[in-house]
């Protein structure tokens, strides 16, 4: 056959595969709907009896997939009777995606909370635990109580895991069939469970199935910051932070340093370095003895010139509190690591809190990848499909809306400067408010929301402000944002998870008007804001306002668009461009930022993967010690044997006359046997193996002596051994994590020597881990053998 070879269209392949997925989900929905009449005919008692019936089927070899159509139909009918809600066909399809361990992308207002109930019920039947993960404790409590009515009616147990609960209450919540909780609480509970000294103190019972609400927010946006449990403060002088801050404030941009807006880094130039050497009275600012000082200077420069009050953080009650860049919410209990938080405290002249040592740490990626099955739902995930697939092995299926979308999305408007942009925003708000149309104004930063609030106050327009300083009334403010005449200013996606329902007569005015005052660096966040309007086929309207002075425009492409405006003779302050080209240019810039952010998260994950392997091995060994119920003899004595072997091997190199028998005796007396109970003469003439056997024999004798000292009570010996091992391993692990953090910071310099820093980190990290294990075994041997056991006298 002659002629052109027809090439496959990759986009068409993706579209067809999505169509194929929806076709399969449609067939599954048909099977579920086929049970509708049968379920409607059952009495309440008969419907409730389906739960033990399903559990018997599972015990007799049937799978969750086998019972899915009937189980989903039971939940639908139960929801109608208990909640007065009957899941739509598209909700059945979404829940099937969740059961498959993937992500259902469903628009705002499509009822994701109800969608989840079918998958949650089905996966709770095997009684291994289902975790429904939400972004905040308000949603945890709200969804746990509302949907909990349905689950309890069907005979399942439901727990709500909150920060303020006691360990006993947490344990009870995790023992339920279904547990509602936040992502951070799961993470901290996991870390704390791996720090307990007794197995009874654990609260979790394993990570079986997690259904993550607002998946993109939790698994992507929050994945940039690892969870850390801190212990005793590291000893660092606060004066160094203050001096570095004063020096940073004495500098002038361009003259002394340059800010790279894209990477948000600050670099001193030759003039700045010279000023630093004079300021700190040094010959060479970057000399090897000044590493700590230059690190503090770098953090002070970052704090002063790339991080801004009321945007990246707020100062509240004399503390620097972080603001989530994606949700606009306060990040309670979170602090920047590596001295950056202290640099911010020095900048804002509040009390500098000491840097704590990390005792346990994990990233959200490595936490959630430990679940046997992971699924999620959100209104906006498709833009991050590659990341979900690569990091979590999850595919995204976009579920059609129940009713066609009627929202009108206008092209972006671009103004020359911030002043003209905000004047235009104010004019639009006044026009819409005059006719009573409700308005939701989205801002990127706290300071923008407060500026807009002042403008509206001057114009006499009543409004609500929802930002990181006012997050307590979040759900209440958002829930009322669709009422006639309501004007609501919200940073990013504050109030996410709460429906905005239109008040009487609002649909006739055009529905909820969403005004974006700036494009966010992530398209998802813009889509979330826009998606607040037009739920369930409601009418709606969205319009984004941009200026050449916006952060995103300054960092990406502002000059190019500025030149374009000038070439079009649009130098007037109130000039405006309404053009699809602008929207496309901005989205192109957003893609670049998203790519940079993905690379950043992937970079963090690649390094944490090294720690993750070590963490899993360490926790497995630690849990073995805690879970042992009879004797730790088979754990302790091999440690002693390996410690003896290492020392003998190192001291018996070469010919016997070159051996260091005195060092071996010194080691034995210091760690295993009583002083003067072994001499060099006892070892002379023996082979290395015979020396090893002799010292190990004495070690076993010492072990037996310890047992006799405890009255041959195996339970007391077990407790004593456990305390010794845990005391050593926890101290060594804390030191090891600190060393690994320092290694990660220092290893980047090896890139200049044409070495791959990640490979170097892996190799060096595993060598350090082996050294830590050897150190643990040596310390356990010494502490156990040399500890003095005294009977308690009553």
TrEMBL record:
<keyword id="KW-0963">Cytoplasm</keyword>
<dbReference type="InterPro" id="IPR014018">
    <property type="entry name" value="SecA_motor_DEAD"/>
</dbReference>
<dbReference type="Pfam" id="PF07517">
    <property type="entry name" value="SecA_DEAD"/>
</dbReference>
<keyword id="KW-0547">Nucleotide-binding</keyword>
<dbReference type="GO" id="GO:0005524">
    <property type="term" value="F:ATP binding"/>
</dbReference>
<keyword id="KW-0811">Translocation</keyword>
<comment type="subunit">
    <text>Monomer and homodimer. Part of the essential Sec protein translocation apparatus which comprises SecA, SecYEG and auxiliary proteins SecDF. Other proteins may also be involved.</text>
</comment>
<dbReference type="InterPro" id="IPR011115">
    <property type="entry name" value="SecA_DEAD"/>
</dbReference>
<keyword id="KW-0653">Protein transport</keyword>
<comment type="similarity">
    <text>Belongs to the SecA family.</text>
</comment>
<feature type="domain" description="SecA family profile">
    <location>
        <begin position="7"/>
        <end position="577"/>
    </location>
</feature>
<dbReference type="GO" id="GO:0031522">
    <property type="term" value="C:cell envelope Sec protein transport complex"/>
</dbReference>
<feature type="binding site">
    <location>
        <begin position="109"/>
        <end position="113"/>
    </location>
    <ligand>
        <name>ATP</name>
    </ligand>
</feature>
<dbReference type="InterPro" id="IPR014001">
    <property type="entry name" value="Helicase_ATP-bd"/>
</dbReference>
<dbReference type="InterPro" id="IPR036266">
    <property type="entry name" value="SecA_Wing/Scaffold_sf"/>
</dbReference>
<keyword id="KW-0813">Transport</keyword>
<dbReference type="InterPro" id="IPR020937">
    <property type="entry name" value="SecA_CS"/>
</dbReference>
<dbReference type="InterPro" id="IPR036670">
    <property type="entry name" value="SecA_X-link_sf"/>
</dbReference>
<feature type="domain" description="Helicase ATP-binding">
    <location>
        <begin position="93"/>
        <end position="251"/>
    </location>
</feature>
<feature type="domain" description="Helicase C-terminal">
    <location>
        <begin position="424"/>
        <end position="576"/>
    </location>
</feature>
<keyword id="KW-0472">Membrane</keyword>
<dbReference type="GO" id="GO:0006605">
    <property type="term" value="P:protein targeting"/>
</dbReference>
<comment type="function">
    <text>Part of the Sec protein translocase complex. Interacts with the SecYEG preprotein conducting channel. Has a central role in coupling the hydrolysis of ATP to the transfer of proteins into and across the cell membrane, serving as an ATP-driven molecular motor driving the stepwise translocation of polypeptide chains across the membrane.</text>
</comment>
<dbReference type="InterPro" id="IPR011130">
    <property type="entry name" value="SecA_preprotein_X-link_dom"/>
</dbReference>
<dbReference type="InterPro" id="IPR027417">
    <property type="entry name" value="P-loop_NTPase"/>
</dbReference>
<feature type="binding site">
    <location>
        <position position="91"/>
    </location>
    <ligand>
        <name>ATP</name>
    </ligand>
</feature>
<dbReference type="InterPro" id="IPR000185">
    <property type="entry name" value="SecA"/>
</dbReference>
<dbReference type="InterPro" id="IPR044722">
    <property type="entry name" value="SecA_SF2_C"/>
</dbReference>
<dbReference type="Pfam" id="PF07516">
    <property type="entry name" value="SecA_SW"/>
</dbReference>
<dbReference type="InterPro" id="IPR011116">
    <property type="entry name" value="SecA_Wing/Scaffold"/>
</dbReference>
<dbReference type="Pfam" id="PF21090">
    <property type="entry name" value="P-loop_SecA"/>
</dbReference>
<dbReference type="GO" id="GO:0008564">
    <property type="term" value="F:protein-exporting ATPase activity"/>
</dbReference>
<keyword id="KW-0067">ATP-binding</keyword>
<protein>
    <recommendedName>
        <fullName>Protein translocase subunit SecA</fullName>
        <ecNumber>7.4.2.8</ecNumber>
    </recommendedName>
</protein>
<dbReference type="GO" id="GO:0005829">
    <property type="term" value="C:cytosol"/>
</dbReference>
<feature type="binding site">
    <location>
        <position position="499"/>
    </location>
    <ligand>
        <name>ATP</name>
    </ligand>
</feature>
<dbReference type="Pfam" id="PF01043">
    <property type="entry name" value="SecA_PP_bind"/>
</dbReference>
<keyword id="KW-1278">Translocase</keyword>
<dbReference type="GO" id="GO:0065002">
    <property type="term" value="P:intracellular protein transmembrane transport"/>
</dbReference>
<dbReference type="GO" id="GO:0005886">
    <property type="term" value="C:plasma membrane"/>
</dbReference>
<dbReference type="GO" id="GO:0017038">
    <property type="term" value="P:protein import"/>
</dbReference>
<keyword id="KW-1003">Cell membrane</keyword>
């Amino acid at each position: 056959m002659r002629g052109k070879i027809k090439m496959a269209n990759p986009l068409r392949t993706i579209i067809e595969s999505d169509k194929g997925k929806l076709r399969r989900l449609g067939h599954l929905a048909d099977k579920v709907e086929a049970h509708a009449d049968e379920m409607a005919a059952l009495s309440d008692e008969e419907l409730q009896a389906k739960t033990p019936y399903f559990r018997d089927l599972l015990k007799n070899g049937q799978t969750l997939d086998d019972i899915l159509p009937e189980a989903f139909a039971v939940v639908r009918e139960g929801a109608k009777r208990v909640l007065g809600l009957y899941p739509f066909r598209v909700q059945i399809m979404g829940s099937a995606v969740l059961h498959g361990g993937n992500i259902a992308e469903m628009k705002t207002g499509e009822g994701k909370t109800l969608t989840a109930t079918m998958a949650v019920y089905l996966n709770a039947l095997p009684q291994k635990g289902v975790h429904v993960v939400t972004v905040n404790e308000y949603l945890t409590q709200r969804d746990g109580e509302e949907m909990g009515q349905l689950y309890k009616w069907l005979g399942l147990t439901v727990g709500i895991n909150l920060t303020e609960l006691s360990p006993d209450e947490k344990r009870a919540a995790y023992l339920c069939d279904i547990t509602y909780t936040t992502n951070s609480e799961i993470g901290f509970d996991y870390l704390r469970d791996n720090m307990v000294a007794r197995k009874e103190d654990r609260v979790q019972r394993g990570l079986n199935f997690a259904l993550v609400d607002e998946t993109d927010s939790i698994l992507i946006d929050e994945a940039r910051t690892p969870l850390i449990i801190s212990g005793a403060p590291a000893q660092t002088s606060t004066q160094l932070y203050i001096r570095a801050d004063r020096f940073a404030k004495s500098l002038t941009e361009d003259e002394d340093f340059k800010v790279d807006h894209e990477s948000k880094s600050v670099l001193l130039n030759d003039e700045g370095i010279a000023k630093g050497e004079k300021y700190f009275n040094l010959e060479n600012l970057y000399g090897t003895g000044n590493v700590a000082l230059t690190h503090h200077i770098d953090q002070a420069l970052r704090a002063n010139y790339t991080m801004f009050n009321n945007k990246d953080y707020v100062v509240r009650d004399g503390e620097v509190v972080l603001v989530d860049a994606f949700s606009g919410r306060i990040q309670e209990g979170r602090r920047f690591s590596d001295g950056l938080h202290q640099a911010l405290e020095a900048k804002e002249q509040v009390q500098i809190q000491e840097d704590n040592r990390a005792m346990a740490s994990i990233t959200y990626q490595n936490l959630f990848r430990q679940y046997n099955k992971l699924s999620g739902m959100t209104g906006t995930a498709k833009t991050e499909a590659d990341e979900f697939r690569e990091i979590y092995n999850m595919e995204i299926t976009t579920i059609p809306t129940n009713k066609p979308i009627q929202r009108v999305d206008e092209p972006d408007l671009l103004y020359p400067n911030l002043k003209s942009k905000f004047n235009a925003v104010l004019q639009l708000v006044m026009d819409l408010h005059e006719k009573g149309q409700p308005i939701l104004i989205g801002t990127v930063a706290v300071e923008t929301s407060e500026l807009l609030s002042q403008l509206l106050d001057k114009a006499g327009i009543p409004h609500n402000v929802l930002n990181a300083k006012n997050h307590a009334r979040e759900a209440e403010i958002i829930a009322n944002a669709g009422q006639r005449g309501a004007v609501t200013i919200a940073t990013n996606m504050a109030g996410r998870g709460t429906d905005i329902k239109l008040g009487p007569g609002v649909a006739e005015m055009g529905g909820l008007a969403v005004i974006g005052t700036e494009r966010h660096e992530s398209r998802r966040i813009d889509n979330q804001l826009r998606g607040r309007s037009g739920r369930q086929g409601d009418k709606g309207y969205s319009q984004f306002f941009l200026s050449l002075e916006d952060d995103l425009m300054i960092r990406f492409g502002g000059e190019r668009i500025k030149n374009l405006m000038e070439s079009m003779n649009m130098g007037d302050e109130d000039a405006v461009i309404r053009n699809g080209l602008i929207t496309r240019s901005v989205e192109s810039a957003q893609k670049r930022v998203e790519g940079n952010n993905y690379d950043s998260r992937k970079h963090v994950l690649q390094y944490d993967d090294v720690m993750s392997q070590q963490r899993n091995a360490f926790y497995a060994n630690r849990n073995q010690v805690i879970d042992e119920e009879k004797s730790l003899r088979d754990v302790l004595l091999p440690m002693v044997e390996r410690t003896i072997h290492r020392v003998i091997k190192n001291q018996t190199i070469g010919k016997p006359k070159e051996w260091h028998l005195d060092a071996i005796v010194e080691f034995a007396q210091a760690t295993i046997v009583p002083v003067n109970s072994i001499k060099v003469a006892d070892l002379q003439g023996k082979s290395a193996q015979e020396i090893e056997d002799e010292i190990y024999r004495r070690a076993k004798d010492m072990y037996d002596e310890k047992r006799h000292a405890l009255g041959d009570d195996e339970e007391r010996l077990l407790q004593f051994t456990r305390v010794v091992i845990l005391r050593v391993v926890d101290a060594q692990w804390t030191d090891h994590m600190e060393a690994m953090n320092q290694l990660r910071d220092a290893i980047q310099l090896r890139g200049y020597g044409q070495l791959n820093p990640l490979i170097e980190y892996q190799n060096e990290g595993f060598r350090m881990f082996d050294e830590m294990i050897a150190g643990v075994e040596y310390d356990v041997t010494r502490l156990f053998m040399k500890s003095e056991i005294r009977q308690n006298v009553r």
